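Fold these two proteins, one after the other.
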Amino acid sequence: MRSLIDHLDAELDKAKGFSEPFPVHFLKPFPADLYPAAIENLPDDELYEDLVHKDAMRADGTSTRKMFSIDEYAPVFWRDLSFVLCGSEVEEVFRDHLGFEGPVRAFCRLFRDFAGYRISPHPDSSKKAMTAQFYLPADETQAHLGTSFFSRLPSGDFQENCRLSFLPNTGYCFKVTDNSFHGTKFSEIRRPRDSLILTYYKG
């Protein structure tokens, strides 16, 4: 997995993304030879747990977003990957490029979104130092399901500034601030939307 660390560093060196209304880096998170293994090793639906969040809940109380926590009980592939992504070397790569400071705790989780999933523009919790989402589609047919980034207008309304395409082996990362507004604007999910989210919590 040494190649993953070097790959992330090289990707962030390319400085793709934008700086306004807040800095966001776009990247291909996995080396080309690692991505197929990630797709092949995605867990079965029954191994995910419902995420309880106001934007994700259906009227019947079920959730449109499920989560798989990558811990010591996870399959070997994900356990090994999480060990690297949550390790100090990857932390230094993101810290150097995104500029967050202070001690952090890393968490790596898989998410699977289903029909009805949406999330309103939000900056992420102030308890977080950084958020990274790595898209995990099997092909390019879900391109319309990417994350949107917003600016907040004086009226309080949100303006969509950019929407990523949800393509294989793509993703983004940003330092969490009080104006790092992101969310979704797509209206329909026909097949599950898979991604990995790496979060650094402060402290």
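Now the second one:
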Amino acid sequence: MTTETVFNAYSRYYDILYRDKDYVAEVEYISNLLTRYILKTIGEAGSELLEFGSGTGKHGCLLAEKGYMVTGIERSAEMIAMAQTSQGFTCQQGDICKVQLGRKFDAVLSLFHVISYQVSNKDLCAVFQRAADHLNAGGLFIFDVWYSPAVYAQRTEVRVKRMADSAVEITRIAEPTIYPNENRVDVKYTIFERNISTGAYLTFTENHPMRHFSLPELDLLAKVNGFECLTTEAFLTGDEPGEDAWGVCLVLRKI
């Protein structure tokens, strides 16, 4: 399975599986970064945001509630069909490696490890370039990724997650395959769905290739694509990245 087909079937269960994800806390964290660093770089709080990989719209809608105008780009048609919309948030289907909207924004966001799904250097540089294309002078590119020291220290393992709503019970098995020379982990997801009313079962699998990054690697990616790094920190906590921080957040400024 190629990355183009990631989330095609998985999207059906996305909101159920991540119902325990604290989107409110994440949006508060991102909003604080925007306020802090946009004030430092362009002199006023920015309001026009572009979100790469907007998924089902949860981050975008919550940011819109805070007064931001958010445009989401999402490759999966299935995700777009499920996406929430609200005043201040719109989304459209597109490839973040290729998108050209002909507009400028105060910040580009890419959350929930969307950048880690760009496993090739070609795709990584393309996304960084598309971010730069869409930013005002001094604009910010904010994203989170899997952090290599934590991946190596904690090691990936088989995990099982169970969630349910009023219609279905979902069991998800995540089985990782490690490619150490590529800084990549392919996660094979097997989903078992039980329909509560009929008792019928549905099963499918998807493979999600994920790349993890070191700080020197990220710094080089920033510099060669026209950015400087303002901060690198553990996602949500703001702590210094370490072996306990699986996800790190970067704030880059367009030079």
